[in-house]
Amino acid sequence: MLIGENILLALNGLRANKMRSLLTMLGIIIGIASVIAIMTLGDSISSSVTDSMASMGANNITVGVSQKSTSQETTSSGMTFSMGPRFTKMTEDDYISDEMLDSLEERYGDSIQGFSLTESVGSGTAQLGSLYAYVNATGVNEANLENTDLTLLAGRTLTERDQIEAKKVCLVSDYLVNNLFNGNNMAAVGQTVDVLFNSRYYTYTIVGVYKYEESDMGFSSSSEEDTETTLYLPLQTAKNQTHNTNGYSQFTILTASGVSATSFCDTVENYMNERYYQDNESFEISAMSMESIVESMTSMLSTISLAIAAIGGISLLVGGIGVMNIMLVSITERTREIGTRKALGATNGSIRLQFITESIVICIVGGMLGIILGMIIATVATNMMGYAVSPSITGIVVSVTFSLLIGVFFGYYPANKAAKLNPIEALRYE
C-alpha cells in the first residue's frame, strides 16, 4: 500500500473517532504548546533586551575607577586569610585625568571614535513662579550627546562653544516644557529657568527641547507633573557647579566601527592599570563592555528557556505513551481487518508501515495544533508584558521533528505487533 493511501486512511480514522483522537493527541498538544510558548516568550524577551541594550550602545565600553580586588595574606602558621577591598576615599591622584584620556586616544586612536564624559549634578526642582518640574541635571560633552541620540523638538543642541566657555545653558525635555511653558516648545527656547539644588538656586538659559522617551533613565511615575527627566548641561558648567577639579571617576569609550568591544575592553583595562594605576595601593581601573553584558544576558535567558522547555517536554513523553496505548487498542479492534489483508497477500512490512504512518499522522496533527496553541499563548503573554512577539523558528522546527520521532518511536511496537499477527488466528478473531 502506498504511503499516500496510508495517510488518507489515518486521516479518515481521525475523523471517524474525533473525541478519542483528540484525547489521544492531548498530551502531544500540551507538550508542544508549552515548549513553543516558553521558547517564543524567551526569544521575545531576549530580542527586546538585546535591542534595548544595543540602542544604549552595545559597542560602548564603560571604564571606571574601582577599589582594588580582594587580596590574600598568609600568617606565619601558614593559614591564608582573604582581605576585602580597602574602602578608601579617592584623592585627586586617583581620578582619571584628561592627560590619561589623551594618552589612551593617542595609543589606540584607530579603535576609539570618542569619549563620552558625564558629570552628575544631582536631582533638583525647576521652577517658574508657582509652576515646577523635577529634573536630574547631568553635565555631558558633545560625544555623549551624539551617542544619546536625542530627538530635538525645538532650538539647538549644546555646541562646542557652550562646552569651552562653560555657558549656563541647558537642554530640557518636553515634559518640563509642558509643566512650565504650557507645552509651547518654541516659546520655551531662550527663556531662563531657576533650578533648586540643595537649597541653592542656579539659573540656566534653555537652548533646546528634546522629546522625552520612556527609555530615558529618569524616574517615571503615573503623574506627568511628578516625572523626573534629564536636564543636560555643558560638561564644564556641571564641573564648575560641583567644584570638581579632580577628573573623572568613570567615562565611556565609543569604539570605532568594526572593533570588538569585548576584546578591546581587556586591552584598555590592562593599558590603564599598567601605565597609571600599577603603584596605586587602593584603586584600579575596571572596564566593562555592553556587548559582553548583552551576550551574557542572552545566553542566560536562552539557558533558562531551554531548561523550562525541557521540563515542559516531559508531557510529550506522556503523550507518546498515550499514542502507543491507543494504537494497541486500535490493533485489537482491527484484528480481522489485519488478518484479511494478510490473507490477500499484504506483507509484514506493509502492515507495519500502515500503523507507523497512523501513529506519525496522529503525532504530527497534534504537533501542529500544539504549535498554533503555543503561538497564541506566547502572543498574549508577550503583549501583556509589553514585548514584541518574536516567533521561535528553532522551537517550531524542533517540535515538528520531535512529533515525528515520537510517532515513529511509540508507533513501532504496536505496528510490529500487528505485522506479526497470524492471519488464520486473526480471521477467527471475533
UniProtKB/TrEMBL annotation:
<dbReference type="Pfam" id="PF12704">
    <property type="entry name" value="MacB_PCD"/>
</dbReference>
<keyword id="KW-0472">Membrane</keyword>
<keyword id="KW-1133">Transmembrane helix</keyword>
<comment type="similarity">
    <text>Belongs to the ABC-4 integral membrane protein family.</text>
</comment>
<dbReference type="InterPro" id="IPR003838">
    <property type="entry name" value="ABC3_permease_C"/>
</dbReference>
<dbReference type="GO" id="GO:0005886">
    <property type="term" value="C:plasma membrane"/>
</dbReference>
<feature type="transmembrane region" description="Helical">
    <location>
        <begin position="306"/>
        <end position="331"/>
    </location>
</feature>
<feature type="transmembrane region" description="Helical">
    <location>
        <begin position="21"/>
        <end position="42"/>
    </location>
</feature>
<feature type="transmembrane region" description="Helical">
    <location>
        <begin position="393"/>
        <end position="413"/>
    </location>
</feature>
<dbReference type="GO" id="GO:0022857">
    <property type="term" value="F:transmembrane transporter activity"/>
</dbReference>
<keyword id="KW-1003">Cell membrane</keyword>
<keyword id="KW-0812">Transmembrane</keyword>
<feature type="domain" description="MacB-like periplasmic core">
    <location>
        <begin position="21"/>
        <end position="264"/>
    </location>
</feature>
<feature type="transmembrane region" description="Helical">
    <location>
        <begin position="360"/>
        <end position="381"/>
    </location>
</feature>
<protein>
    <submittedName>
        <fullName>ABC transporter permease</fullName>
    </submittedName>
</protein>
<dbReference type="InterPro" id="IPR025857">
    <property type="entry name" value="MacB_PCD"/>
</dbReference>
<dbReference type="InterPro" id="IPR050250">
    <property type="entry name" value="Macrolide_Exporter_MacB"/>
</dbReference>
<dbReference type="Pfam" id="PF02687">
    <property type="entry name" value="FtsX"/>
</dbReference>
<feature type="domain" description="ABC3 transporter permease C-terminal">
    <location>
        <begin position="311"/>
        <end position="423"/>
    </location>
</feature>
